Amino acid sequence: MIIDPYNRVHNYLRISLTDNCNLRCFYCMPEEEYDFTPASRLMQPNEIETIAKQFVQLGVTKIRLTGGEPLVRKDAAAIITALSKLPVTLTLTTNALRLHHFTDVLTNAGIKSLNISLDTLQEEKFLLVTRRNEFKQVYNNIQLMLQRGFHVKVNVVVMKGLNENEILDFVAWTKEQPVHVRFIEFMPFTGNKWTSNKVFSYHEILELIQKQYAIIKLQDDAHDTAKAFQVPGHIGTFSVISTMTAPFCSTCNRLRLTADGKLKNCLFSKEETDLLTPLRNGADIIPLIHENIASKAKELGGQLTTNFETLHTDEIKNRSMITIGG
Rounded to 5 degrees, what angle do the CA atoms 141, 147, 151 make? Predict the structure, then answer.
């Protein structure tokens, strides 16, 4: 097993396939003309499979593929197919833009649940956020996935002054369709222009929703990052990921592997461990995995505080969101 100094067992691995993306969301990608990692420095399909098998041997039971946008890799289908043969629950986080090309691949791989990023239901605002005019394709692909019976979670990064006025629209969406909307507090990463006055908090989100809807609290699983709710009579649900104001670090079971093969034991960790270079040199990476997890901080990578109003982003040492993999 992979156990940290606080007796947290880590059985959930998030693997980024690429830092490339076909959208340009300003809070994720530092700039439009971004220099993507050269292909030679990315983990290759056989390397991803080899590393994943090492983690499975250590007790990992769930793997999520992320990016960037994982489906922009030309060999994404091959990677998905290979990992589907491991004894894990395999899932995917995507912006949905290319999902219509992968419905059969995902079905054949046994993937049943998808996390889809969508921060607005307004076409013009989608263009503002992503710098790409692709709202209709994304929305239509969400509908396609629902029709195909996938469990669809829609990730909404809420930013004050940008889209908090759409929260009720997203909740209304859950009435007639089985979408599971997850409102995410805006988090600081290198280059994403985070400021504390853009954070629309967990309590503010609930207060806004409760002005229009009666809601019930749902039972959260032991390692859930989201606090789940439902409006009585609605088919779908909504939840809040309250990283900035009410973090869930005490039950964390997640590890992150970046597209260039670096292991991060927390989304906000400053340190990371290179697994890819030792693997290519024929070294045993399992001791490196244990060494990495042994240095895990108690919460928020040891860099953040729940008093987010006092955070100084220039003091936080981390990657941009797109190079971490969500």
Answer: 85
User: Domains of the chain, with CATH numbers?
Assistant: 12-324 (3.20.20.70)
pLDDT at 247 exceeding the cut of 80: no
Band of residue 23 on the pLDDT scale cut at 50, 70, 90: confident
User: Do the beta carbons of residue 61 and residue 253 sit within 8 Å?
Assistant: no
Average pLDDT over residues 179-208: 81
3-state SS string over 152-208?
EEEEEEEECCCCHHHHHHHHHHCCCCCEEEEEEECCCCCCCCCCHHHECCHHHHHHH
pLDDT, mean of residues 107-129: 96
| Token pair listed for 200 | 């629309």
Distance CA 103, CA 184 (A): 26
Question: CB count, 10 Å around CB of 39?
Answer: 11
Q: Are 52 and 15 in contact (CB under 8 A)?
A: yes
The single residue listed with the structure tokens 């691949």 is 105
Tokens 């900035």 — which residue?
244
One-letter identity of residue 315: E
Residue 142 identity: I
Identify the pLDDT of residue 244.
Answer: 76
Peptide bond into 68 cis (omega under 30): yes
Phi and psi for 36 in degrees, rounded to 5? -75, 155
Residue 172, phi then psi, degrees to nearest 5: -60, -35
Strands 62-66, 237-241: pairing is: unpaired
Q: Tell me the pTM.
A: 0.89
